[in-house]
Amino acid sequence: MIRSYFRSVSRVLPFLVALVMLSGCGYNVIQQNEEAVNRAWGDLESQLQRRADLVPNLVATVKGAAGFEKETLQAVVEARAKATSIQLTPEMLSDQAAMSQFQAAQGQLSSALSRLLVTVERYPQLKATQNFRDLQVQLEGTENRISVARQRYNQAVEVFNFSIRKFPNSITNNVALNLKPKEYFKADAAARAVPEVKF
Asked: Which parts pass through the membrane (predicted)?
């Protein structure tokens, strides 16, 4: 009786040990954290696209102002074209060069928009139009949402990067997943300041 009990336990024990070890390996945690990074990236991309979508309306509104500097408008149009031409998939978020290129293009767009808004200060009749004021408010709100989305993305990256480095998750990652740390979205020097909108 006792022998059969020990045989039963000795057969079940390896499965129980394996189950306990697998539940603490971090596989699911790593997967969940990577999904959080991908979701946060999608939110950030959505806000960046919203800003890019506002640019044509802003340019069209400003273009109607007599004597408005064409170089400023051209810089905005070119910066938007470059920013929207560079796409990052979630699989590319670990690629430092791709992320740097993406960040630089977004920074150039932010810088060009800032210069545009500063230049508009010299055109009071343009600033007084309802359409332009509405676009300014939308742009300012979008820039604030971009800042929040960038912060949330970076927080998700921090959690993910730590989860693939801590023990025992690091073993699981090295053996089963081989995921690389994700890159943070750092604001380009030109994009660090939200454009100041004055009425």
From this structure: 12-30
| Distance separating alpha carbons of residues 109 and 105, to the nearest angstrom | 6
Residue indicated by tokens 């978020």: 93
47 and 145 Cβ atoms separated by less than 8 Å: yes
Given this model, what pLDDT does residue 122 score?
85
Structure tokens at 101: 């290129």
pTM reported for the whole predicted model: 0.80
Burial per residue of 104-120, b for 16 or more beta-carbon CB atoms within 10 angstroms, e otherwise: bbbbbbbbbbbbbbebb
SS3 197: coil
Distance CA 120, CA 73 (A): 11
Element (H, E) at 29: helix 27-63
Domains along the chain with CATH numbers = 26-191 (1.20.1440.20)
Task: Give CA separation, 107 vs 49, 191, 195, in Å.
Answer: 14, 5, 12
pLDDT, tens digit (0-9, with 9 covering 90-100), for 87-109: 999 999 999 999 999 999 999 99
Per-residue confidence at 69, pLDDT binned at 50, 70, 90?
A: confident
> Cβ contacts of residue 6 below 8 Å, gap of 6+?
none
- Contact of 29 with 171, CB cutoff 8 Å: no
Instruction: Assess contact for 25 and 168: CB atoms under 8 A.
Output: yes
Q: What does the DSSP 8-state code read for residue 123?
A: -
